[in-house]
């Protein structure tokens, strides 16, 4: 290990003390253990972020129902029975539009705050940033749930709680992606991020299952239980998260490479480093490994200047030359090649994904004969498919080196899948299961790829030179733009389903996928052109 040890979490200090006491005679390579811990902690953290987003989609079925013909559970107090399902102010024919307004309150606040959140994340300790954000998000989710036991019926209360939740939730994505980018290099990044990104779907699944368990019994618990879990995991993040390898004396990935030079040719000016990932050198005939930054290697050897997995990330001039410790601004981040195209494409990709996230259980219940609980359980299949889709997109991107083409292919297949699902959903339960799995795979695959591996590559683009503090800003720009689409989608779905029917909602989703595809066409052309050039030469 090397570097100055900085703010080490107390949980890590305790673990190291115990391990050093038990293994006093053994040398412990801590970096793999820290990397494994980062994978687990960030995975759990963002699972909880989505765990608290999902309950509203399940509870919509209860809030918007009329109590006639429905019998509350026997353990509901008699004096509260009139409020167990048709909850004022969502007991009118405009309930879908009002519930869509709640979604939009959350998502527009999320989209607006995301840009600021990325700016802040580059400049603060991410351990405090994430843990405080998680605890605050858990509290906002809990506040929504207490509306039931305290008989709160103010629409403005629900709107304000949702908006606050949206603001606090923006701490999640820039934080966890930046931490992952700090700890893991470029090798098989698509696969690693694809597997890791399953936290989004897993959070949706757990959120649906927890909400479905309480929704017909006490819908307030559908929010309070996930909120409590979120706060607890936020405290775990505070105890154990290490945002940067240098905080615990580990060497960052890809920050340097080793150049082999003869000992006789070295001078006193050479920089020698005993780095955690470096070779252990012994013997009289040893060679000296000099630690040089990647930018220096690029200058000395043009063949090494391109190490990105995606062709569209290569061959650009440096656009930012500030020191390594300074954070990049929004203008500089927007100039990075590909940021604008991927941001706009994600706008439409998240529009589709979040429409399913917030409306799928209600859509299934409204368009089939399935009940509230079964509809919630069926909606989980969309997220199960999303897990497979995220991994598949990552593997294809790694194998082909063409992220934009991977996204375009999946966008193209999504269009006919949504069309078929809209028209054959009433055939059988088995057909519903297959189509929901396939739709989840194709919708969430490119969405996951853009928000993880692509964002990380763009945030470490070679045009940034020595600057290494662009990742959270780039992630915030891409995800923030996508989040505007995520806010627009559920709002339009609520309005269109109320006035024009669910068929037109699906036409909107198919059109959005087509636009997401077209916005990446220039990048696909560049990737294919470069691929053909490599095949020729």
Structural commentary:
The chain is mainly alpha-helical. The protein has 19 helices and 2 strands. It has helices spanning 10-22, 30-51, 55-63, 95-121, 126-145, 155-169, 172-183, 189-196, 198-214, 221-240, 294-300, 330-334, 339-367, 372-400, 403-424, 429-459, 471-499, 502-519, 521-536; strands spanning 256-261, 288-293. A two-stranded antiparallel ribbon has the order 1-2. α13 (339-367) runs antiparallel to α16 (429-459) and α13 (339-367) runs antiparallel to α18. It is globular and about 65 Å long. Mean pLDDT is 78; it is low at 1-5, 68-83 and 255-325.
- What is the percent of helical residues? 55-70%
Overall shape: it is: globular
Strand content: under 5%
Derived structural class: mainly alpha
Q: What is the helix/strand order?
A: HHHHHHHHHHEEHHHHHHHHH
**Total of DSSP H or I helical runs spanning 4+ residues:** 19
Rg estimate, integer Å: 25 Å
Chain-averaged pLDDT: 78
- N-to-C span: 42 Å
Strands ordered across the widest β-sheet: 1-2
Number of strands: 2
Question: How can the largest sheet be summarized?
Answer: 2 strands, antiparallel
Stretches where pLDDT is under 50 for at least 5 consecutive residues are 1-5, 68-83, 255-325
């Amino acid at each position: 290990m090397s570097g100055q040890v900085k703010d080490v979490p107390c949980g890590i200090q305790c673990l190291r003390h115990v391990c050093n006491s038990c293994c006093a005679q053994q040398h412990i390579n801590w970096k793999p253990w820290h990397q494994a811990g980062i994978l687990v902690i960030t995975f759990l953290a963002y699972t909880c972020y989505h765990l608290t987003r999902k309950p509203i989609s399940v509870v919509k079925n209860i809030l918007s129902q009329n109590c006639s013909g429905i019998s509350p559970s026997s353990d509901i107090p008699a004096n509260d029975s009139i409020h167990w399902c048709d909850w004022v102010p969502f007991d009118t024919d405009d309930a879908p539009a009002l519930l869509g307004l709640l979604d939009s309150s959350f998502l527009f606040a999320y989209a607006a705050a995301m840009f600021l959140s990325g700016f802040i994340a580059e400049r603060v300790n991410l351990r405090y940033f994430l843990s405080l954000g998680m605890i605050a998000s858990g509290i906002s989710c809990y506040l929504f749930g207490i509306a039931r036991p305290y008989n709160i019926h103010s629409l403005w209360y629900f709107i304000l709680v949702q908006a606050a939740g949206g603001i606090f939730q923006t701490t999640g994505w820039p934080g966890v992606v930046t931490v992952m980018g700090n700890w893991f290099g470029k090798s098989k990044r698509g696969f690693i991020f694809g597997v890791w990104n399953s936290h989004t779907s897993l959070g949706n699944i757990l959120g649906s299952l927890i909400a479905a368990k309480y929704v017909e019994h006490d819908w307030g618990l559908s929010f309070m239980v996930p909120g409590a879990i979120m706060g607890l995991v936020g405290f775990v993040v505070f105890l154990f998260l290490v945002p940067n390898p240098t905080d615990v004396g580990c060497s960052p990935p890809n920050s340097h490479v080793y150049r082999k030079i003869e000992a006789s040719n070295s001078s006193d000016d050479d920089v020698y480093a005993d780095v955690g990932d470096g070779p252990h050198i012994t013997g009289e005939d040893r060679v000296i490994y000099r630690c040089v930054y990647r930018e220096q290697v690029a200058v000395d050897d043009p063949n090494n200047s391109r190490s990105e997995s995606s062709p569209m990330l290569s061959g650009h001039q440096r656009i930012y030359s500030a020191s390594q410790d300074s954070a990049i601004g929004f203008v500089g981040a927007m100039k990075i090649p590909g940021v604008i195209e991927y941001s706009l494409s994600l706008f439409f990709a998240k529009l589709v994904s979040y429409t399913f996230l917030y409306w799928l259980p209600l859509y299934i219940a409204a368009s089939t004969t399935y009940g509230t609980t079964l509809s919630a359980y069926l909606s989980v299949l969309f997220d199960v498919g999303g897990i497979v889709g995220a991994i598949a997109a990552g593997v294809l991107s790694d194998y082909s080196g063409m992220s934009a083409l991977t996204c375009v292919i999946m966008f193209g297949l999504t269009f006919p899948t949504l069309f078929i699902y809209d028209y054959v959903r009433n055939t059988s339960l088995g057909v519903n299961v297959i189509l929901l799995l396939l739709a989840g795979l194709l919708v969430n695959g490119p969405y996951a790829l853009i928000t993880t591996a692509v964002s990380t590559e763009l945030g470490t683009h070679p045009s940034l030179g020595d600057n290494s503090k662009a990742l959270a800003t780039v992630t915030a720009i891409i995800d923030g733009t996508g989040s505007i689409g995520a806010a627009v989608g559920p709002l339009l779905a609520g309005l269109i389903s109320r006035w024009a029917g669910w068929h037109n909602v699906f036409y909107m989703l198919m059109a959005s996928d087509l636009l997401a595809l077209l916005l990446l066409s220039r990048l696909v052309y560049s990737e294919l052109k470069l691929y053909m050039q490599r095949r020729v030469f």
